[in-house]
Each structure stands twice: as C-alpha cells, then as structure tokens.
Amino acid sequence: MTNVYSFDGILVFGLLFVCTCAYLKKVPRLNNWLLSEKKGVWGVFYKAAVIGTRLHLAVALCCLCMAFYLIFMK
C-alpha cells in the first residue's frame, strides 16, 4: 500500500486523477456536467482531462513505470 502523505502517494494520486479525468472526458453526459467549467475549482478537472488527452503516451508510460516501481521495488 502507498501512503497518501508520501511522495509516492502524491504521484499515484496525480496519475490516477489525470487518467480518470481523461476517461470522463470521453463520456458525453459527464463531459458536459463535470468538465464544462474552465476556470475556478471545477477547472482543475478540465485541465487534468486536457493533460491526459494531449499527453496520453507520456501519462501511460508514467503509469507503467509507477506500477513497476510499486510492485517490484517498494
């Protein structure tokens, strides 16, 4: 298990957040409801979705590296 208050936990949370927002951007109803705001607190979801869709290869590689680190090295 990873601790949320460690650096590893923060990286895992950030990667999962970006991946989840990118997935929610593909669902039409949730896209209109959750990702319609581009500013403010709700804008964080939109910005994470944009990062996840534009840098999908880099995010996927980071997820694989983090999974390898958590399973085999920690």
UniProtKB/TrEMBL annotation:
This is Protein kish. GO terms for cellular component: Golgi membrane. Keywords: Golgi apparatus, Membrane, Signal, Transmembrane, Transmembrane helix. Its main location: Golgi. The chain crosses the membrane at residues 6-24, 44-72. Involved in the early part of the secretory pathway. The keyword Transmembrane helix applies. It comes from Aldrovandia affinis. Belongs to the KISH family. Pfam families: DUF1242. The keyword Signal applies. It is a single-pass type I membrane protein. It is found in: Golgi apparatus membrane. It comes from the Eukaryota. PANTHER family: PROTEIN KISH-B. InterPro entries: Kish-B, Ksh1.
